């Protein structure tokens, strides 16, 4: 099989698995489901991915692999922490706009088997990026640059405010917006709200 043909089929398998994982969840999706949807036999699928777990890591990795280096570089910048969080928000919003069902998928996997998700995240260096954020937060708290706040408070303020609009996107659009395109403008306004909340939470100017 030519390299281009191999890569094209591998990409099609990953994209199909991603769609099925999102629709049916990891536990509810079988390798046979993936093979049938792609239009190949199970033997061919196992040639690319021997187990569903390897498939999961490939799907998760294909989505977040480009995000991790960006977060790492942003956190290393010598600018106020809240400004860095604003830049990280931009990266997440771009990713979730491109992959709108990703927050739902992640939340579902957290409820189903959080250890499985964390193990995949660790292999894909997502955990390393979160550790860098954690260490940076603690160091700046100790240095007095930002207020000492329990880390779960910071984590939940950031991620709950970030992900919830995507989880209830249809409701927000139906109740408050004229059309789907307005959601993009709303996200920019919401981003500023998140930054304000982070500023209020972490500012020492109180």
Order of helices and strands: HHHHHHHHHHH
Uncertain runs: none
Which descriptor suits the 3D outline? globular
- Based on secondary structure, the structural category is mainly alpha
**N-to-C CA distance:** 65 Å
C-alpha Rg (nearest Å): 19 Å
Largest sheet geometry: none
Provide the helix percentage. over 70%
Strand content: under 5%
The overall pLDDT, averaged over residues, is 89
Number of H/I helices? 11
Number of E-state strands: 0
Question: Would you write up a description of this structure?
Answer:
With 206 residues, the chain is mostly helical. Helix content is 79%, strand content 0%. It is built from eleven helices and no strands. It has helices at residues 3-24, 31-38, 42-48, 52-64, 67-75, 81-98, 102-123, 126-142, 151-167, 169-176, 182-202.
Task: Outline the fold blueprint.
Elements: H1 3-24, H2 31-38, H3 42-48, H4 52-64, H5 67-75, H6 81-98, H7 102-123, H8 126-142, H9 151-167, H10 169-176, H11 182-202
Keywords for this entry:
206 residues
